[in-house]
Amino acid sequence: MLSIKEYLRPDTLEEAYDLGKMENTLYVSGGLMIASLKSSRLERLVDLKNLGMEEIEDGKRVKIGANVKLSEFMTNPLLSSLNHGFFKKTMKDVGSTQIRNMATVGGSVAFRLGWSDVITALMASKATVELYEGQLNEVSLERYVKEKRRKEIVTAIYIPKNDRFLAFEKFSKSTFDIAMLNVGVGMNIRDDKMSDVTVVVGSRPMISGRIVEVEKFLNDKELSNSIEAAAQLMRDTIKVGGDVRVKAEYRKVLSAALLKKAMRGIGDES
Amino acid sequence: MKVEFKVNGKMHSVNVEPGEFLLETLRNLGYKSVKHGCDTASCGACSVQLDGKPVLSCRTFTATVNGHEIKTVEGFSKEGELSNIQRALVEEGAVQCGFCIPGLVVTADALLRENPSPTEDEIKGYLNGNLCRCTGYESQTRAILKVAKDSRGEKS
Lengths: 270, 156
Hints:
The complex is a heterodimer.
Chain A lengths: L5 E3 L4 H8 L4 E4 L3 H4 L8 E4 L8 E2 L3 E5 L6 H4 L1 H15 L5 H6 L2 H6 L6 H8 L3 E5 L3 E5 H6 L6 E8 L4 E7 L9 E10 L2 E10 L6 E2 L1 H7 L4 H15 L10 H22 L1
Parallel strand pairs in A: 1-3, 2-3
Antiparallel strand pairs in A: 4-5, 5-8, 6-7, 6-8, 9-10, 10-11, 11-12
Helix pairs in contact in A: 9-10, 10-11
Chain B lengths: L1 E6 L2 E6 L6 H7 L18 E4 L2 E4 L12 E3 L12 H8 L9 H14 L5 H7 L11 H14 L5
Parallel strand pairs in B: 1-5
Antiparallel strand pairs in B: 1-2, 3-4, 3-5
């Protein structure tokens, strides 16, 4: 049991935002992360479930309400077909069935966790984040995870609708353990030539981020001839740290190996 | 705070602490099949169905199930008669210490509703959050395949 004083269930975004401004207050959606907190200062939770935010809307891009569960990426026909089935395939490697039935896309992003597989995968797709901070704003996911905001409510994620090929790879002790490192790659590919490349690495153990040196190197090159050199460049340039799970040097080796695997996967698929 | 929800078809109206987890509430109500295992969202022993989908009761705030429906393994057997999944697990020798079995039953039931003809890999993938330290999963996978075949009227 968490020793808190209040569990509040507001009905509107405005009300939730005002309640969230109180000291020692956190928002809760899926609840997985909050339930793991050991903070003795936490006094109240503001439940975001009554706010809706469960829509999945098709258009020039796909809007995914913040309260949509990760399991929807595998079962919803629109989400599971995006980018050649990328999200359906990727989410199988994120958590367990039970965790995917509980965790929401908004919560997965809002906590800005360094080891998040979801952030890496979404960043590779160039997703953007819609936030409520007294008014609705939209920022790129890349910018959102770097910024220090307080008390904002993530209301939706937008995924661009396009034909880019995306791949996600992670290395962990068991299928649903926290990754020692994860890699997301996205690109357009025509006649083996790559463009609009994104290379994202997470669980380094710091927050997921794009590896711009590798992206620049890969743009306008042929995929099949560039894999080894890109992997070497990744190993030489990436900034990683060590922690209780794995040493920094091992993470560097992993980053190169997972990039190769992801690029080969895209090569086979395209 | 007051919370109202159904467990195995029976309505409950209970007063709970704001930070109380469903695992604690269910066990206090007498649903002892719901096991307190790892408490870190890793083992699946506390799994229950929330509106038909398996979730971890050790990480679900009771406040969030207000107006929803829970199913535990107590809801599977009728008048002492085991359900198909329970019977298959017993017949295939998939129950040893038994601690993981309630969580496994509710998860396997959801799998077979979502996918009545799962492959061996699909079963292992769906159940990867239900850890078992005794069986090595072979007998459990066999049991679920058997139930799926039986329900399709095929000979197993």
